[in-house]
Design a protein that fits this description.
It is a single chain. 43% of the residues lie in helices and 10% in strands. It has 35 helices and 17 strands. The two termini are 32 Å apart.
Length: 774
């Protein structure tokens, strides 16, 4: 049996989108329990921390959310209107309250009272309460910038789309729900309190905004210590759940050789960065009741450098906030923390412009035309312009990439990534930027390897991706988040050598890397998963444990009783993590798929799976993974007609969805309805021409149904789009052999062997064809 298997179906397990010497940790080692303290409110902090309180009131945190009043509302509610695709929204006041008249849950114009403001710079949104305790973020926002900057106006967050009341992005829809999408980061000690029985919320908070205890944790024992009340003499660490002491007595000194700053003492913990990351990372909450100061991955599942969120070289693409970018930076690797640059209570920069960077970096080296080749005081001479290029979100909110990278316009030519040079020089080409970089810094400047090349190749099934990913994972200089991403991208056909590398990564010090290993377990053949993944079930970090447990479910029938007990204990944690977000279709599908895979022979588990699938569909009727996984459950149960019915139900909602159509084609093949199946597979391949798998499956079907010439034509078209795709090439060689066209088979086999020199099967196929032609 091969070490890695190639599954017929893609499994949609969604996120609510590991040093050798490390010992195996028992379940209770390094685990954090939720604090038994309680929240006392920021007003209790002022008498001793007046300066910090004053600074906090100048911050975005202080105004993250407020009750809608004359003081907090910044927009024009003086009977103004806004037209979005023919829907006229009117903003007005009534009885000292703020109201709007707009299209509601049924598309009809309805009056709604604004309950809360949401943010204030550079835009402000408004929260409206609907039935079931739902607070919804209205999609027409107020641009709070000055008129000179183009502000003081109403604008829609999705100006180029036509979003009506049936869309999940409509302000009344699932994806604009404050209780899930926004609340945990804009208020203090949030309790979502979702009731899945009646799908209602009773969301509570200790303070409406981001207050002192959001970052410092509940302060009841600290207050007892400070006021010498109760058993204050027994209080540990002044009653604080954790201390932000990572910058105590820290200095940055210049290295005389490199003129670069060096931290005088090594950074010993991640408390500050992980605390900020709770809200400044693209992540899903997996544990609500947590202790402040614990590792981020013990409460959140953080996104890797995933496609559609980050460009292949790690630059920001979708709205990913700061954490994942900063983890890529050399500054993070050298021990820089958020408060080195930002004051913690105002969140403002410690200095403006280049002065901030030059507080650590030598001005005579870096603020010179010999370094940046732009006139002093010009935009191009700004450190941020080159090393922290920005992207605009929500229409007007400019945010800087915190990976602090050296501009690489050469990667733009090969990876189609942005670069700081042409972001400023919009009238110039990427090649122009490359030519200037070579002129300034020499040819060897562009010879520096970059993990973006390898991630790009892996995303696009390029030749030799496996060995490239293995090299990246073992590179001691590459950021760990890039290593974790590489692990998650390891292909299904990986070799024994890669598997050995995977075994080493199980013991990495960084939980992000171990999480990458856990995600890669799904690519291992079931017979090998347990031996690799059991280690991770004892991991001290929750995200790693539950990701591994989810991948190991398939191994349960072969396990000993003691191992089943261990696996079930972590699966209980997985289920609890999904129930944190039971109001989301992603979590419902995760639970349904878990139960369906455990319950092929147990009706009770199947009934649970059906319930969760139906709940997911009712929460969002165009949620593709719900239909795909639901249909696949019935495939495994042998009920192809039920599988077909579910997919046809999906087509009513999404008639031109390639994923649904492709899955329907496979269902029809298994029912021996070949002509209907071919039509569906052909349509899915046409609708999604960049999906090489759809092309591959269509060609397999054509060849199986005695249409080899059409299969060859289809494969050639696919290879024009994916010239190094192993599966397409392998199938083309096979069909040529079957047709007796050994000359064509030899040409394709040579190409396959050249692209995959370490692939023993490809080399043996080539030698076989050579022997046949002779």
């Amino acid at each position: 049996m091969p070490l890695f298997s190639i599954p017929l179906f893609h499994r949609f397990i969604l996120l609510l989108t590991l040093s050798i010497a490390l010992p195996v940790l028992a379940n209770d080692d390094l685990r954090f329990e939720a604090s038994k303290q309680h929240f006392v409110g920021s007003e209790q902090c002022v008498s001793c921390h007046q300066t910090a309180s004053d600074n906090h009131q100048q911050s975005d945190h202080f105004r993250a959310m407020e009750v809608a009043t004359e003081q907090s509302v910044l927009a024009d509610f003086n009977n103004t209107t806004f037209n979005y695709n023919g829907i006229i929204t009117r903003f007005y006041k009534k009885d000292d309250a703020f109201w709007l008249n707009t299209d509601g849950v049924d598309g009809k114009l309805t009056d709604y009272q604004v309950q809360y403001t949401f943010g204030f710079d550079p835009l402000q949104q408004y929260l409206i309460e609907l039935d079931g305790g739902r607070l919804q973020a209205f999609s027409v926002a107020w641009d709070t910038r000055s008129k000179e900057q183009g502000g003081q106006r109403w604008y829609h967050l999705y100006p180029d789309e036509n979003i009506d009341f049936n869309d999940a992005l409509h302000w009344t829809g699932l994806n604009q729900n404050w209780n899930f999408q926004c609340a945990s980061c804009h208020s203090t000690h949030l309790e979502k309190n979702y009731n899945p029985l009646n799908r209602s919320f009773n969301t509570l908070w200790s303070e409406i905004n981001v207050s002192c205890e959001s970052c410092h944790g509940p302060a009841s024992e600290h207050l007892s210590w400070a006021t010498q009340q109760s058993d204050w003499e027994t209080v540990i660490n002044k009653g604080l759940t954790h201390s932000f002491d990572e910058r105590d007595n820290v200095q940055w000194v210049l290295d005389e050789t490199t003129a670069s700053p060096i931290r005088n003492t090594a950074l010993q913990s991640q408390k500050e960065i992980d605390t900020c990351g709770r809200c400044h990372a693209r992540a899903a909450i997996i544990k609500e009741d947590f202790a402040h100061g614990q590792p981020l991955l013990d409460t959140h599942h953080v996104s890797f450098l995933n496609q559609d969120r980050y460009y292949a070289d790690g630059q920001i693409d979708d709205e990913v906030y700061v954490y994942g970018s900063f983890l890529q930076s050399k500054m993070y690797q050298k021990g820089v923390t958020c408060s080195d640059c930002h004051t913690p209570h105002t969140q403002q920069l410690r200095a403006q412009g280049n002065a901030l960077c030059l507080s650590c970096h030598a001005a005579d080296k870096f603020e010179s035309e010999q370094h940046h080749f732009h006139p002093l005081q010009s935009t191009g001479a700004s450190c941020v312009a080159c090393h922290m290029p920005s992207k605009t979100y929500m229409g007007i909110d400019e945010r800087h990439d915190h990976s602090l990278r050296i501009p690489r316009p050469d990667l733009s030519l090969t990876l189609d990534t942005p670069n700081a040079c042409t972001q400023c020089h919009t009238d110039q080409s990427d090649q122009w930027a490359v030519d200037n970089v070579i002129k300034w810094y020499g040819d060897d400047f562009l010879d520096r390897p970059h993990y973006g090349d390898i991630i790009f190749n892996a995303r696009n099934n390029m030749a030799d991706s496996e060995s490239q990913l293995s090299s990246l994972i073992q590179d001691g200089v590459v950021p760990n988040i890039a290593k974790a991403t590489a692990l998650s991208l390891m292909p299904n056909y990986s070799s024994q050598e890669s598997a050995q590398m995977l075994a080493l990564a199980l013991f990495d010090d960084d939980p992000m890397v171990r999480l990458g290993v856990a995600q890669s377990l799904n690519n291992l053949a079931p017979s090998y998963r347990w031996s690799y993944g059991k280690q991770l079930l004892n991991d001290p970090v929750l995200a790693v444990r539950i990701e591994a447990a989810r991948a190991l479910v398939i191994t349960k029938p072969q396990l000993q009783q003691q191992d089943i007990i261990l696996l079930n204990a972590v699966l209980d944690e997985y289920i609890a993590a999904q129930l944190v977000n039971a109001d989301r279709p992603e979590s419902q599908v995760n639970l349904a798929t878990l139960y369906s895979e455990q319950g092929d022979s147990e009706q009770g588990e199947i009934d649970k799976a059906k319930q969760h699938f139906e709940t997911a569909i009712s929460l969002q009727n165009n949620f593709i993974p719900a239909y795909i996984n639901y249909a696949d459950m019935y495939r495994r149960l042998g009920d192809e007609q039920k599988s077909e019915a579910i997919l046809r139900q999906a087509l009513i909602v999404m008639p031109n969805n390639a994923t649904i159509i492709h899955s329907l084609g496979l269902t029809l093949i298994r029912q021996q309805r070949h002509n209907e199946a071919l039509a569906m597979l052909a349509k899915s391949s046409q609708l999604a021409p960049l999906n090489a798998r759809y092309t591959y499956i269509y060609a397999v079907a054509l060849n199986s149904f005695n249409l080899p010439d059409l299969a060859i034509t289809t494969l050639k078209e696919g290879l024009r789009r994916h010239p190094t795709h192993r599966g397409l090439l392998d199938l083309l060689v096979l069909i040529y052999q079957q047709q007796g066209d050994l000359d064509s088979a030899l040409i394709s086999a040579k190409k396959l062997a050249d692209l995959y020199p370490n692939d023993q099967q490809a080399q043996q196929r080539l030698q076989q064809i050579i022997a046949e032609t002779n």
